[in-house]
Design a protein that fits this description.
Four copies of one chain form a homotetramer.
Chain A (H helix, E strand, L loop, with lengths): L1 H15 L18 H20 L8 H6 L24 H19 L5 H30 L22 E4 L2 E5 L15 E5 L2 E4 L5 H9 L11 H9 L8 E4 L2 E6 L2 E4 L11 H10 L7 H7 L9 E7 L25 E4 L16 E3 L8 E2 L5
Parallel strand pairs in A: 8-11
Antiparallel strand pairs in A: 1-4, 2-3, 5-6, 6-7, 8-9, 9-10
Helix pairs in contact in A: 1-4, 1-5, 2-4, 2-5
Pfam families (chains A, B, C, D): FGE-sulfatase
Organism (chains A, B, C, D): Flavobacterium segetis
Protein name (chains A, B, C, D): Ergothioneine biosynthesis protein EgtB
């Protein structure tokens, strides 16, 4: 456990290695957090839910930090409002790293004591929480750098690769299936409530849709024909003048793509990424197919390889039967988002190894696309 | 069919009888349409989908109207943007009635000819379409009058009554149920795709929640405790300073209520109405219960009386398996809204008689509450 | 005095004669008031400042109206916020006319009693106040009708005519001039504080700029060259996509103009109207001239004919030396606007006869152009 | 000249010495620019207006910088929109300093050549331009640090001191005065157009209003009585919930003040600073006095000491008679702002030595108060 804990702490910092000091405090959009904030908030979590509660010798690193790096946990006190996260040049990056060091060391001492099952369960959540912030860090770093006029290079990592293109559609038989996380390994509360779901016959693609395939949609004026779009999606593309996936740039009639390795020519064979739900849905409509439901995806997921990109499903994020929120701040983790969000399944090249599983329920509002999201067809 | 057609046309006008000329052109909020617009748009529908298409002798009443009273049908041409509907004092109310008369008479002549099955199906849609606008007319009239400083009286109609308070919860057995409209009678496209759904054991209340019960939630500071709310709901009540259902006013420490009969003391025994999904959900959380899913509601609906108020369910509005949009403008009717909306089931005192049925899927975004909406608990 | 009072009351109603009932309650923009509101507010003024204060027998027509038709007078109590004026379909138009009748009759009885100088002074203000609302009524009616898709005709009145085109520039000698209203006749408080102003030699045009001349500016890409514009003006034309004066429409490469007589071809010989200060300034820059100051205008005004359109000057609206606000609500009339506004001098075809004079100081924010405003060059 | 140039370049960097790398890229509000941007933009100015135009050997440091650090000069090409200045973490701070060094050295070489009068005049403007950005740097640094939850200390500099409190009002005789910059020394174009202005008898205070005096206004509910405020000012304080000067914090019933030395108890004897025009005007109304005009200020300025804080006048920023814009980008410097701004006269502790003079016309929109602004009464 100590090794796993240390590895997670180390990984968060590795992700920030290629950054300049100047990059750490920037909030490029309301939905993006500065890297510094991720590093500090994932540290605060250990203070808040473990050290201050169960380690009687623990003294806070800094009272201010305890206040500043709280996130959406309404039960823990007055939060720093999200949009102002990007206005904090202080504490400095160096001090945030020193805060991390202080808490990591305190945690190591704490982990060396006798811990109850309950405490071990919270540590498991803390590790998974920090892993989630690692993935968000990658999204946010890409957004921060990718929206600057000079398109700076991060490093040559988190790359997708070609999907094998055959066989195309995998048939699945109708039946009553068991949905939800089984067994004793860790899962989030929203995966629980194992329950039966009846699913009719369907087919699901073995591969993600590629850039080449998505360009066909653009060329066919897919972004200009409302018949493929939800009413809200149509407003969204028109209000935001959206005509291609995020990070695509048409220069001299050729498609270029901002990647973590910089601005490069679009690789047509790679899976299309940075799609909103609206765009994924519109593509599937145009193609005469549809998106799978999250249940179909879970049932079929043993039949294909997944994990390059999170995959939009046509399921809204709702509670499983019997779901109930944990009391207190940890209960805010997932339950309070169960409206206005669509489910994504799978994982991405930015997901920490071992973090996801086939029952994992990721979710975003349908207009979000800075996450590493793609699209698999069903019919 | 002619009689039914004439009755529907007559009913729309009856609803507007108590209005002053001044009331007809007002758009009290972006989501509200002026009564004049409803009268004209439900007339335009007959012109657009029947007379101009199938009656070769038909000459448009007025080219401008054909343009002005189109609604959300992206396939029919450039629309008048919604928010500016309330800036049209012209055409006059008198002229809109004359437009109605002209089209009704043309339709009667048309209905007296030999009509194919296809045409009869569109007429059926037209009747249901106008009925929907009748219900919207009631909502919009209430909103227009209820937001004026003088609280004008409309008339003494569309009133709810006491729900019988026993027995409280009805138990339903788990099993695989058939969902969706069966038989040959009319239904909307979104009710089709009959399919099996597995549902676990559950209980559902025989009665809607009453004003008296809802006041308990307010008194218990339900509007001030985020643990009962979705994150989006919490933002919504705080940004809009919402502390009670719509049309409630606390005057000298007593609850008053704007009704179509004017401003009256709140009747504690009536079902609570004008709730958003967020409020219905928060109430059920506070009560230790939950909202039924739309499937549970449909399965149980034979066991209780319904129809006073539309009932929020915890189901998002999504396509049934096998759903496909009709080609062309009629296909825009329901399909394009299948995101970001929650399902309501049942009907209301403002629903035209015979318009609804147990498979009927009504839907609104979770913040809407000017519609006649209430709440039934499940567990 | 009684006759003058009755004539003013009658004129307000004459202006509304061509309206439909539907037109009276509409608020086409935040800066526009519904005609019904003008009729009621100019009536409320007599109640508030005379009848309730000096006529001990007077009983309010309606307590609600006393609240509803107050305008910007912060000293009189809680106002109806400006933007919601257009959401009041009640009281009805008929009732507003009956309110007018009631107050007019009460005033006639009051005017037949012995009145002090102080009271007569307030009556004079009341008459001038109602005249100002008559002019605003014309602006607002034009805006309400002119922004509807059917371009309804009001009536054939308030028309400008050709300006005599020679001689062009009138030279004025430098010197120390007396500025401000002199004599005992009525004027507004902002015209007082007679004071000396030194003005250098200048020349001022005998004529307003014509539509024909303004088209030259458009053709020369005047709206596209920021060198002619203030920084704020440049933002304003770009944010609002402004490429011509208000009410101009380019149809099939010809300029059409919405007038109170309907949509007609632009008459090139008439003075250009419905300009913002920004546009007037930009034109003068392009022409290598400038706008006169309000002092230059006042000094030169005996040398040319004025009164067709209000004329933008390059003077900001500021207090004259020695200006002081009247105590109480009447003091709010002019003083509180003395920032962020530019001065217009003269009068317009919509100004009631005898209302303006050469020392009259009209003012609007520099982006306003629904008023009847034009432009005279100086150098 | 070389020494003066080098001193100015050095001073800009001295001001940034106390900053952390993290502070340089932050844009705390739309009207604030990141320190990095000031350093780079004041460097770009030398490239744009001198090196690229008159030094044939000069090669741009970096083509991107030439684009990125342009400011409001519409004549020079596409600008980086102001609000996104704070989203540029790249180029790094180190690179901006190296850009400065490169350009400074190129300028030194250039200054050692034979320069025409015209070129020397542009150099003079460049020096004054960089001095203006030094003052803005101080404002922006204070705003960036003063809006962070930890109230970081900058350094103990730019401090005001006590004003001598007697004699209070200085009488000035009426007469015809000459206004505008005289002589051959440098001034901005907006100070030119020497002209005569007639001014009546007036009195002006020898001292700025102090914090102690301003607290009397707050205690007397000055922020809650609209009679002291312009209509726009009243909206501004209500919409922004303003109840004290900027950087004041009431903690446990005592006034604290964020200063460049950190959060300290308010020193009652110092001049009140960080006032908007609206607040300065309201105070003077409450006091039964008024603000001086810019002409009165200029005429009286030899009779009192000034230079601690910029002083709001009751004059709008308008062109002097005969003013004309320089052709090209340099002409955008002052002329395009001559609307919607009020004049401040004097100088502040943040003004570089020798930069201001009695004819200097500073200006801001009436709601701005992050600049070092105070208030002197007249009557």
């Amino acid at each position: 456990m100590i090794n796993r804990f240390l590895r997670v702490r180390e990984n968060s910092e590795q992700i920030c290695k290629p950054l300049f000091i100047e990059d750490y405090s920037l909030q490029a959009s309301e939905f993006v957090s500065p890297p510094k904030w991720h590093l500090a908030h994932s540290t605060w979590f250990w203070e808040e839910f473990l050290l201050t509660k169960y380690d009687i010798n623990y003294v806070l690193y800094n009272e201010d930090f305890y206040f500043l790096f709280n996130s959406y946990y309404n039960n823990v006190g007055k939060r720093v409002l999200r949009p102002s996260r990007g206005l904090m040049s202080r504490p400095s990056v160096a001090e945030v790293y020193s805060y991390r060091k202080f808490v990591t060391e305190a945690m190591v001492r704490f982990l060396n004591t006798n811990l109850t099952e309950d405490i071990l369960a919270i540590i498991e959540i803390g590790i998974n929480h920090e892993e989630q912030h690692q993935e968000l860090l990658v999204y946010d770093i890409k957004y921060i750098l990718g929206n600057q006029p000079t398109f700076p290079v991060y490093q040559d990592s988190f790359k997708t690769k070609l999907e094998i293109q055959a066989p195309n559609f995998i048939p699945i038989k109708s039946g009553l299936y068991k949905i939800g996380h089984q067994g004793n390994s860790f899962c989030f509360d929203n995966e629980l409530g194992i329950h039966k779901v009846y699913v009719g016959d369907f087919e699901i693609s073995a591969n993600l849709v590629s850039n080449r395939q998505f360009i066909d949609f653009i060329v066919a004026d897919g972004y200009k024909n409302f018949n493929f779009w939800h009413d809200d999606g149509w407003s969204w593309i028109n209000n935001n003048k959206i005509e291609s996936p995020l990070y695509w740039h048409k220069i001299d009639n050729e498609w270029w793509n901002y990647t973590l390795s910089g601005l490069v020519k679009l690789d047509l064979d790679l899976p299309v990424m940075h799609l909103s739900f609206y765009e994924a849905f519109a593509y599937s409509e145009w193609k005469g197919c549809r998106l799978p439901t999250e249940f179909e995806w879970e049932i079929a997921s043993d039949k294909f390889q997944w994990g390059q990109l999170w995959e939009w499903t046509n399921s809204a994020y709702l509670a499983y039967p019997g779901f109930s929120k944990v009391a207190g701040a940890l209960g805010e983790y997932n339950g309070k988002f169960m409206v206005n969000q669509m489910i994504l399944r799978g994982g991405s090249v930015a997901t920490p190894e071992g973090h996801s599983r086939k029952t994992y329920r990721n979710f975003f509002t349908p207009n979000m696309r800075w996450q590493f999201s793609g699209l698999r067809l069903a019919k």
